[in-house]
Amino acid sequence: MPTDSRRLTGPEETKSPYAYVKQKKKLQVLTGKRHDGRSPETLRPIFLKADVVSQARGSAYIEQDNTKVMCAVYGPREVGRKEDFSMKGIINCVFKYATFSCRYRRSYQQDSEEKDMSVQLLDALEPAVCMHKFPKAQVDIYVTVLQNDGSALAAAITCASVALANAGVDMYDLVAGCSVRIADNLVLVDPTESEEYKSQDDNPVNHGSVTLGYMPSLYQVSAITSKGEIEFEVIKKAINLCGNTSQTLYPVLQKCLNNSRFSLSLRFSLSLVRYHFCVQF
Amino acid sequence: MEIPRSSGFQLRHMMCEFGQLSRPDGDVTVFQGDTSVTTAVYGPGEVRMNKEILNKATVETVFKPKSGLPGCAEKMFERTLRNTCETFLLAALHPRSSISIIVQEIQDSGSFLSCCVNSCCLALLDASVAMKFLVAAVTCAIDSEECIILDPTVKQEKDSCAVLTFVFENKDDSILAVYTTGSYTVQQFQQCSQTCGEASKAVFDFYRTSIEKKLSKAT
Amino acid sequence: MADDFKYGPHEKDVRPDGRELGEFRRTVLNIGCITTAEGSALVKLGNTTIMCGIKAELAAPKPAEPDRGFIVPNVQLTPLCSPHFRPGPPSEQAQVMSQFIAEVIKNSGCVDCQNLCVVPGKLVWVLHCDLMCLDYDGNVYDTAVLALLAAFRNTRLPHVEEKEEVPEVTMDKTCSLIVSSQPVSSTFSIFDDRILFVDPTVEEEGLATGMVTVVTVGNKLCMVHKPGGSPLKSEQLLTCFDRAFDRSKEVLRLIEETILSVER
């Protein structure tokens, strides 16, 4: 393995202490009774704040109990040299878990999971942004998960959309993220790390997860991603539940932005939304 | 072999050779006891577009260790050298150009940073780059009996509880740069800076005689 | 010119944000905020924010030092914290900062590597101390050193027992890391070759003609780092040391208060 000369390195082979923990063979069975006392349909308490990074155009921080995500938005700024001319703007999304955010230590470089998350995040945000408003330019969205206790992608979507609005980037609507865990007939909203679906376990049918990006004032879905083998009827139910839950998040996002320094520019861009509607319909 | 010194309050024997390399605009190999460093200076010359500064020259330093790739410690070393050189060079005389300084480690037998700074100063003199003032670096170590050892060897550095390197300028003897390892009291710091300040005079004399020797050879 | 506008205030001993020359920005400390890490701390110095997370892992020691663990500090200047940083490998600045932190740990001896030994010659702790900059508004050195110290104070290592050559870890049973000394850093900027002021913002760092970082530990100095910049008289350095010792008292009090309030 080549050593990284740009960082201070310890011994080449290290093992997480969790690898030495004596396995308590206990298959976790998900029931309607969740270990934090929530009912299946409730979200964890949310703390959302915009304007957390003084150097960024826009930024936001979200805390869903122990899931902590921070996002900063820079730009619109000059595109890299390799990009071609385009009348539409470019959004660049970088999703990263902090090295200390998970049970097992993460690496400094983006791994394939994080790259995948970056793409999913981008897919969820792109439909909500007026891309034609910044031709030849690029908006950079940097998302860092400080601690992961489940539903990190959903939290990242919510956080990034608030940061975008905070940066004064023109948008059609905000995007609220929500994820659910499906276990047989049970649908758990906003799963924690221990409740989350893990593909490596051998799972029977109707075990999986769904994450939805939802634009609450347009009543439109911007992105949807699911894992596991799920029957159509069940996934339909899950999507509906996600949509409804996201709708309840909307006032939280609005209130957070109203308290931030760009509340004025937001009002302006919301009036823009109305204008776009007139053109469309 | 290390030549024994009469007391701890003296610098090791200093020596330098100019013009060993043919390509650079200025170069010097400095020996300080068994520690030796070769420094080459190119410039003022063309600068890479992305490093161009409109109102002054870009100073670049590259530190090459004896073997292996440069790591974080070398980067810190490099930046200390660059910041030091940036301060005493009159970079504003050469806008939109680059002055690059390449420092190659030959042998580290203690007081390495001060040897590097001194070689940079001599190499820049050799390249006739305009400077605000000259700088001289002196290293000293505080041993376990709280005695100050000037210009320590590697072994002395290892056995000591602190090693301090000071860079002085010759205009009004102020301190340009400080780099220390280990822990020490404020009094010890003061004593060291005083001792090193006095020893720096010897380094400036050494610059003078070396340049005189070089110029007398040239004519 | 914008520069003239900013030059003015410093001459009259006041700074653009209304602080005096010797005044630090408001320091906010939060300890143990990341439960997935063995130790963590978040420090805000004005706008500058740094989070330190310590992840402990197990490894075999070096054959030459069978009873010494490892401390691996790394500073990440993430693209999130400032428009000047881009994704990719660490910049020169980040590398220099990592090295600085490593030297502060070594010089101050705040954590003894021998305390990280589990089974001599076989198993030792590796503490990955990752300092992540979340908002870059100047003076990251002081913020980083404070975040590191607070995280060390917060670190609890799980209990390891060796049963028949196989180590067994109990995550619920933990003991605190022994922190033997407490380094505190203070950074001074030099303005116009003569005016010294503490805790520069990113704006002031851009205008400064030199910087000095002083790290104190107890009543001793463990690091005086002045990489070039405007020359200083020794008397000026002495005033820096005095301020640094005062600052150290303030910071240590803040840490103790925070630890008490967290435990409560």
TrEMBL record, chain A:
Q: Which UniProt keywords apply?
A: Cytoplasm, Exosome, Nucleus, RNA-binding, rRNA processing
Cellular component GO terms held in the UniProt record? cytoplasmic exosome (RNase complex); nuclear exosome (RNase complex); nucleolus
Q: Look up the domain of life of the source.
A: Eukaryota
Q: Which CDD domains match?
A: RNase_PH_MTR3
Q: Name one Pfam family in it.
A: RNase_PH
Which InterPro entries does this entry report, sorted A to Z? ExoRNase_PH_dom1 (IPR001247), ExoRNase_PH_dom2_sf (IPR036345), PNPase/RNase_PH_dom_sf (IPR027408), Ribosomal_Su5_D2-typ_SF (IPR020568), RNase_PH (IPR050080)
Which residue intervals define the domain Exoribonuclease phosphorolytic in the entry?
43-169
Protein localization:
Cytoplasm; Nucleus, Nucleolus
The GO terms this record gives for MF are:
RNA binding
Q: Which GO terms describe its biological process?
A: nuclear mRNA surveillance; poly(A)-dependent snoRNA 3'-end processing; rRNA catabolic process; rRNA processing; U4 snRNA 3'-end processing
Q: Which family does it belong to?
A: Belongs to the RNase PH family.
Q: Which PANTHER family match?
A: EXOSOME COMPLEX COMPONENT, EXOSOME COMPLEX COMPONENT MTR3
Complex and partners? Component of the RNA exosome complex.
State the protein's purpose: Non-catalytic component of the RNA exosome complex which has 3'->5' exoribonuclease activity and participates in a multitude of cellular RNA processing and degradation events.
Q: What is this protein called?
A: Exosome complex component MTR3
Annotated source species = Mizuhopecten yessoensis (Japanese scallop)
Organismal lineage: Eukaryota, Metazoa, Spiralia, Lophotrochozoa, Mollusca
TrEMBL record, chain B:
User: Can you quote a single GO CC term?
Assistant: nucleolus
* Xref: Pfam families: RNase_PH (PF01138), RNase_PH_C (PF03725)
Query: Would the keyword Cell inner membrane turn up in this protein's UniProt record?
Result: no
Asked if rRNA processing is a keyword of the record, the answer is yes
Name a single GO biological process.
Answer: rRNA catabolic process
**Compartment(s):** Nucleus
Which residues, by range, are in coiled-coil regions? Answer: none
> What residues does the Exoribonuclease phosphorolytic domain cover?
10-129, 134-192
* Gene3D superfamilies in the cross-refs: GHMP Kinase, N-terminal domain
Entry-linked SUPFAM superfamilies? Ribonuclease PH domain 2-like, Ribosomal protein S5 domain 2-like
Q: What name appears for this protein in its UniProt entry?
A: Exosome complex component RRP46
TrEMBL record, chain C:
Its chief place of residence is cytoplasm
What keywords does the record list, in alphabetical order? Cytoplasm, Exosome, Nucleus, RNA-binding, rRNA processing
Does the keyword Methyltransferase feature in the UniProt annotation?
no
Pinpoint the Exoribonuclease phosphorolytic domain residues.
23-158, 182-246
Stored InterPro entries: ExoRNase_PH_dom1, ExoRNase_PH_dom2, ExoRNase_PH_dom2_sf, Exosome_comp_Rrp42_subfam, PNPase/RNase_PH_dom_sf, Ribosomal_Su5_D2-typ_SF, Rrp43
Q: Which Pfam families match?
A: RNase_PH, RNase_PH_C
Domain of life of the source: Eukaryota
The molecular function terms of the Gene Ontology recorded here are: mRNA 3'-UTR AU-rich region binding
Q: Which GO terms describe its cellular component?
A: cytoplasmic exosome (RNase complex); nuclear exosome (RNase complex); nucleolus
Q: Where found, per UniProt?
A: Cytoplasm; Nucleus, Nucleolus
Q: Does the keyword Transcription regulation apply?
A: no
GO BP, sorted A to Z:
exonucleolytic trimming to generate mature 3'-end of 5.8S rRNA from tricistronic rRNA transcript (SSU-rRNA, 5.8S rRNA, LSU-rRNA); nuclear mRNA surveillance; nuclear polyadenylation-dependent rRNA catabolic process; rRNA catabolic process; TRAMP-dependent tRNA surveillance pathway; U1 snRNA 3'-end processing; U4 snRNA 3'-end processing; U5 snRNA 3'-end processing
PANTHER family xref list = EXOSOME COMPLEX COMPONENT RRP43 (PTHR11097:SF9), EXOSOME COMPLEX EXONUCLEASE RIBOSOMAL RNA PROCESSING PROTEIN (PTHR11097)
Q: Describe the family membership recorded for this protein in Swiss-Prot or TrEMBL.
A: Belongs to the RNase PH family.
Q: What is this protein called?
A: Ribosomal RNA-processing protein 43
Species of origin reads Mizuhopecten yessoensis (Japanese scallop)
What lineage, starting at the top, does this entry show?
A: Eukaryota, Metazoa, Spiralia, Lophotrochozoa, Mollusca
